[in-house]
Amino acid sequence: MRFIKYLFLGVVALVLIVVAIANRQPVELKLLPEDLAAFVPFAGQITIPLFLVIFGSILVGLLIGFIWEYLREFKIRNDLSKTNRQMKHLEREVGKLREKTGEGKDEILALLD
User: Fold this and answer.
1) CA-based radius of gyration for the chain
2) Residue 30, phi then psi, degrees to nearest 5
3) What was the pLDDT predicted at 98?
4) What is the dihedral of CA 63, 65, 66, 69, to 10 degrees?
5) DSSP state of 42
């Protein structure tokens, strides 16, 4: 199983390297469109290789997906936490009742108490 994992990671790395080599040409990234940039003093632009744009887009998409999923599952985790607290409370209460009634002890010893 470990071999398959490393093989898969190697194939993914190889594909990413090939994509990076094929997309080395520089591109300009602009913060705003040219028409709108005339009115804003901080309309920046940067020149970077295309593969960085591609990989950056993938990372931003993954980050947005992780955050979206975390927020979507927040209610489920909150309900699970409440259920676990309630279960522990009820287990403590059952334990106290068993001690009080003597359940689980030998009947003869329970009569002596």
Assistant:
1) 31
2) -115, 140
3) 80
4) 160
5) T
DSSP 103: T
In terms of phi and psi (left: phi > 0; alpha: psi -120 to 50; beta: otherwise), the region of 29 is beta
Residue 34 domain boundaries? 2-112
Angle at 57 between CA 35 and CA 2, to 5 degrees: 175
Helix (H) or strand (E) segment spanning residue 30:
strand 26-30
Domain count, the chain: 1
Low-confidence spans in the chain with pLDDT less than 70 = 102-113
Q: What is the pTM of this model?
A: 0.64
Q: How far is CA 84 from the centre of its chain?
A: 22
CA distance 52 to 24: 9
Q: b or e along 66-84 (b: 16 or more beta carbons within 10 Å of the residue's beta carbon)?
A: eeeeeeeeeeeeeeeeeee
> SS3 for 83-94, per residue?
HHHHHHHHHHHH
So what's the pLDDT on residue 75? 93
Neighbouring C-beta atoms of residue 97, cutoff 10 Å: 10
